[in-house]
Amino acid sequence: MKRDNRLLASLLSSLLVLILLLMLLPSCVGSSLTAAEVEDEIFRLVNETRQGLGFSALLRDSNLDALAGQYSASLLSDDVVQTTELRYLLRNSWWVVYSKGSPRLTEDTAQGQVDYCFENEKLREAMLRSEARATGVGVAVVDKTVYYTQVFDVLNAAGGNGEPIRLYENPRATDPTWQQLQSFLIADNTDKLTYVEGSFVCADFAATLQNRAEEMGIKAAYVSVDFADGPAHALNAFNTTDKGLVYIDCTGPGFLGTNIKNSSLINEGYDKVVYMEAGEVYGLIPLGKATSFNYEFYEQWMQLWDDYEDKVELYNSGSLSYSELANLRKEIEELREVLGDYHWEPLGTVTSFHLHW
């Protein structure tokens, strides 16, 4: 009987030990977290790291969160990059494969991933970009892999020398009137700089103009545009208070993608008003000749040029009488007064474009 009591006491003691171990187990391995909780903690820790190094804290942006989440859930698919704004934005992305069992997100997961980013040169550089103001985080668990993405509101573009484009943002900059914008562009000499492949290209022109405008207190955007054929291009946008959104291409001499028709003399500079819509050609009108900024105006402008050239051809054909020539010459001179001495040939057909304010 005593032996049975001892055996029962031993079993009870073992059971108590087992219960105690089960109670302690979660605290030993860390409590399970959801993907959303890990995203929140990564956001907090990245800001903590940035502030500790003297950088500003980032704001949480729901649109960037959605992009980051979509990219992680796609297993970092390039299709998502090419069909969303991700192609224009700086991002960090990586993954962790769990070889033993299913992935488990714990209280230590976020810290481990932020530490990993900080130890990786490329990921650390993105995490500490000084011009970043907002971010989004996405975590997705798929089978035995966890995919992580952090997107920043920083332009993902490089200049002609391969270095990242860095845009200055003046928090006191405001939208200009059309007259103020014109005056700034006429005084600015960015369009007088020379396009040099591998050194100073369209991205450098657009970044230079954007930064100079912001320094002058004029709010500006860097615009990336893709064509159906050929390389991408860069320009600027200004949201004028009286004329609405105006696109400006300041790419200077040497850019082979921009052809001049009818004259090789550019008296007023290389600043051009841009007209673009997805599926339409990238149209250009000299700064001093643009009086409206919708695409229909560009189409009408090009029709005037076609009419002008047809009239010139007819005038030179030798088939008209003296009085007919006199009347036609008057029409040609009137059109020339409106159109000027030259016009820019359009670039390619626009497929998409992105404004980075």
Q: Any descriptors?
A:
single chain; 357 residues; alpha+beta; six-stranded antiparallel β-sheet; four-stranded mixed β-sheet; 20% strand
Helix proportion range: 40-55%
- Largest sheet, order of strands side by side? 10-9-7-6-5-12
Radius of gyration: 31 Å
Structural class: alpha+beta
Number of helical stretches of at least 4 residues: 10
Q: Please, what is the average pLDDT? A: 91
Instruction: Please trace the helix and strand order, writing H or E for each element.
Output: HHEHHEHHEEHHEEEEEEHHEE
Beta-strand percentage range: 15-25%
Global morphology = elongated
Low-confidence stretches: 20-29
* End-to-end C-alpha gap: 86 Å
Please report the total strand number as a whole number. 12
Report the major sheet: 6 strands, antiparallel
Give a verbal description of the structure.
This protein is of the alpha+beta class. The chain has 10 helices and 12 strands. Strands 10-9-7-6-5-12 form a 6-stranded antiparallel beta sheet, with helices on one face. A 4-stranded mixed beta sheet has the order 1-3-4-2. It has a two-stranded antiparallel ribbon with strand order 8-11. α2 packs across α5 and α9 runs antiparallel to α10. The longest helix has 28 residues.
